[in-house]
Amino acid sequence: MAYMGRILATTIFVFIKAYFYSKALLNGEAIQTTEWIVTVGLAFFVYYLGYQYDKANYFAKSLEDVFDNTQTMIWTWEAATGKVIMSEGCERIYGVTRKEFERQTDLWFLTIHPEDRPIGLYFDSRTRNGFDETVRYRIYNQSGNIKWVQMVGHPVLDHHGNVVKINGVTIDITKEKEKDQEYKKIIDASPVANVIIKNGQVEYANSNAVQMLGAGCLEEISGRNVLEFVTSENQEQAEECLREIEEGIIEHVPFKEYELMTLHHTSIIVEFSGIKTLFGEESVLLVVAKDITENKRVMKEKERAELDLKKTLKELKELKFAIDEATIVSIADAEGRITYVNDRFEESSEYTRKEILGRNHRIVNSGYHDASFYKEMWDTITSGEVWKGIVRNRSKYGNFYWLDMTIVPFLDEEQKPYQYVSIRNDITDKIKSQQDVQHLAYHDSLTSLGNRHAMNRFLKDKLETNKGEQQEMSLLFIDFDRFKNVNDTLGHSYGDLLLQHIAKRLQQSISSEESLFRYGGDEFIVVVNDGDRRIVEQKVNDLMEQFSEAIDLKEQEVYTTPSIGISRFPRDGVTSEELLRKADAAMYHAKDNGRNTYWFYETFIGEQREKEAHIEQELRKALKEKQFSLLFQPKVDLITEETIGYEALIRWNHPQLGTISPLDFIPVAEETGLIHDIGDWVIEEACRILQRINENREVQVPVAVNISAKQFERVDFVKKASAIFDRLGFNPRLVEFEITESIVQKVERSVKVIQALKSLGVTVSMDDFGTGYSSLSALQDMDIDVLKVDQSFIQKMGNGKSDSLVQAIIQMGDSLGFTVVAEGVETKEHVELLKEYGCTIGQGYYYSPPVSPYLLIEEYSLY
After folding, report:
1. Which among 190, 286, 348, 750 would be 20 to 30 A from 821, CA to CA?
2. How do residues 326-338 score in pLDDT, each as one tens digit?
3. Is the dihedral of CA 661, 667, 668, 672 positive or negative?
């Protein structure tokens, strides 16, 4: 509640009193105690008046908000001036502003549907003559759409009985009317008669009810008293029922039988029930009825026939019971038409007797057996022989079931079959168990694809066939990138769900002539019946296209891409082991070359594997023989162009192989675990060098060190770093650890490690931001200090799209309280754009390439 009324009232009162008291004091007049008491009392009274004003203003504003923000319009028409005042609800209902309505006072009438304007004229006449009135009609809103509204008018009269003004409310009831129409549609769709009764009269009826009552259309019965259709014998009972419904004594009418009289004066017997419900917000009685006149006649005839059959049925009862409980039975005549089925036949086939009797057994034919199967069966039984066998049938609703069946022909005096009795036992569960065992042996339980056993069997048969026919083929070994991240971050249930989605997309991308198997984990095998490189490449591209869009896992969007290795028969091998091994090697080569790509097996891939093995051997000697060195690249303030820090970058100078790129040896170091010793050396060496640089600087600058994901995950990582700082006497506030987005996937552990580092004073930055999977909530939880925009985005600036992305990252980083650093700054244009977007720190070749830190030590020692 605002305080304006109280503040204004109190302020005016204080100023007035201050004026008179000041004047009195200047004249030397003393202010009496009584006058002070009266003044204080008046002050409280004035404050109370201000409070009442604020309170009234608050409730008036609240009421105005209620009506202005709903599908309701409040209006007033003044008789003397013809002026109309209304709420903002007019724009929501009519699509017309309040000013337009007030300028054109007859606009309400002009928007009425032409067919409903008589209703509008009636409303206008009634209310102008002083009568309260409520009407409903259709309007066209500003968009040309038809709406239903309810107009309520209440005239205000003077003491002479003349209308002074009319207060009214207009309510949008379109949805209510739509519900009524839907309600009518449901009633119209009912297969039996439906009648809506309001105040004892027919309000609405569907076509079945119209026909049942002998009318040609709804208008012939609409508005009629329902008692007109009730015979005199049932009048009293019907009147009592309607009265109890109207008075609320009962809410529904149980099933009853009535004799009714149609418009054609024909007597019919109906079975009906009724329930009290709402129709157009009014209480009505919905009656559901069925003409059972014919049923009654049939029932009487049936009763006569049953008397004749009673004796026979009694004799067969015990036998039938035994048969029904034991087995499925049907009887067919000499032409194969079914003349009898027992209950269990109905249950298994899901057909009723009425649907089955008189038809032949083709009604349950599943299509599983060929024509020769049924010919052999028919030839056997028509010759008078008993036939036995196992049959698969199909029920009415498409369910397949297996039967162990015996057909016994009954022969006449001429030894010709006159009927056939089929006795069946349902063995579906037994067959299914056998199929399940077979399926599980050769199929993956998660994806239902063929498993490794099925693949080995398939490849063995396929290769033998292809050798004989000299037919080429290709084997695609597919591994999905970053699958482990899903398991680690979302859990194995999401990982399983992702594998199922992957399997579906792979199935969608292969033809019926190709084969798909789950090899294990996130690895899949596709066999293509062609060895032509261009055809296989097209197939691989189509397959990879399936994974260009995100996969939705329970409202979690996940991206995964395939890395594919390809081997070809007979070019790369003639056995399944050779083809799998070489496709696997090619797949790993694809992963090493950026993932989300494919690679055909070539001999150099084997050489590459040998090279990696050699690098691993040499890495174990590199630390001992001091083959590693660090280069320092400056971080620059883009405004002042002053160096404000460095990033330490490792280099390997091998005595025989020369300079080896970190891209070549870091993955091997991570895979072998050597990254821990190398990472510790980089931290210690970077701190040691920075100490020497800062000895000759007035302002101390920090150094950034890249931390491997494997190094970060080590249990004693923080303890090791702290020990290095203590050993060197190094201030941890001068070191920045750069981690990658892959670490974000393990949020809970990462948060604990980052908190421990920050407690030491270490600054933590997110390197290569934008190339991984960071979520904003994860970044906030981990309390990152610095966000480094990946150089791939910076180097593409100037083309519009990349500019927007960089600007968005910078703005996001600022809003989350991060210091934003741009990597890969190489041109003056990069600098100007970054400054324009609000980024003030960068590093790149525009300022300096990575240089030997000893040059920096020497440079600062000269000052």
Report:
1. 750
2. 799 999 999 999 9
3. positive
Q: What's the token pair of residue 800?
A: 């519009």
Which residues make beta-bridge pairs with 112? 139
Measured CA to CA in angstroms, residue 591 lies from 240, 479, 481, 501 at distances of 84, 9, 8, 21
**HEC states along 541-585?**
HHHHHCCCCCEEECCEEECCCEEEEEEEECCCCCCHHHHHHHHHH
371 vs 211: CA distance, rounded Å: 49
d(CA 813, CA 816) in angstroms, rounded, equals 5
Strand order in the sheet with 133-140: 84-86, 72-78, 163-172, 146-157, 133-140
Q: Which of 261, 196, 275 is nearest to 231 (CA)?
A: 261
The Cα 512–Cα 128 span in angstroms is 79
CB 293 within 8 A of CB 212: no
For 103-123, b/e burial (b = at least 16 CB within 10 A) is: eeeeebeebbeeebeebbeeb
- Asked if residues 753 and 783 have their Cβ atoms less than 8 Å apart, the reply is no
pLDDT tens across 760-808, in order?
999 999 887 766 555 566 677 778 899 998 888 888 887 767 788 888 8
What percentage of the chain exceeds 70 in pLDDT? 89
763-769 and 786-789 beta bridge pairing: parallel
859 or 62: which carries more pLDDT confidence?
Answer: 859
Q: Which residues of 229-254 are buried (b: 16+ CB within 10 A; e: fewer)?
A: bbeeebeeebeebbeebeeeeeeebe
Residues 646, 636: Cα–Cα separation, whole Å? 9
Q: What confidence score (pLDDT) does residue 744 get?
A: 62
What Å distances lie between residue 97 and 83, 92, 102, 103, 560, CA to CA? 16, 9, 9, 10, 52
Q: Does the pTM exceed 0.70?
A: no
421-443 confidence digits (pLDDT tens): 999 999 988 888 887 877 788 88
pLDDT at residue 189, rounded to an integer: 77
User: Residue 643's closest CA among 563, 704, 572, 582?
Assistant: 704
Distance CA 787, CA 303 (A): 90
Tell me the residue type at 505: R
N-term to C-term CA, the chain = 67
Instruction: Centre a 10 Å sphere on the Cβ of residue 595 and count the other Cβ atoms it contains.
Output: 14
State the average pLDDT over residues 279-292.
80
According to the model, what pLDDT value does residue 57 have? 61
Q: What is the largest CA-CA distance in the chain?
A: 150
Helix (H) or strand (E) holding 124: helix 117-128
SS3 for 366-429 is CCCCCHHHHHHHHHHHHCCCCEEEEEEEECCCCCEEEEEEEEEEEECCCCCEEEEEEEEEECHH
What is the number of other CB atoms lying within 10 angstroms of the CB of residue 7? 13
304: part of which helix (H) or strand (E)? helix 293-326
